[in-house]
Model the fold of this input.
Amino acid sequence: MGTLDNVDKRIFREFLRELGLTQTIKGGHEKWNYPSSPKLKRPVVFQTHGSKTLSAEHLQSNLATLNVSKKEFLAWYQANKKRQHRPS
Done:
């Protein structure tokens, strides 16, 4: 994965947890934010139903919300790749 392709939502959830964000579910969407101040300007949001992957467009938008570069995410992904392929 040298570019941002569709990413498994389980992998992105792990990334968000490692950043210290917590999850709430409202309707068909997951919302992620820091549990206390400083909160994000807007939460990280994606659908809970449908596809098991997060599209590259949604990933890029959510990384921008987090102020995390594509390069930083890809470095995290590569460093954690083996751990992410564990059975569900």
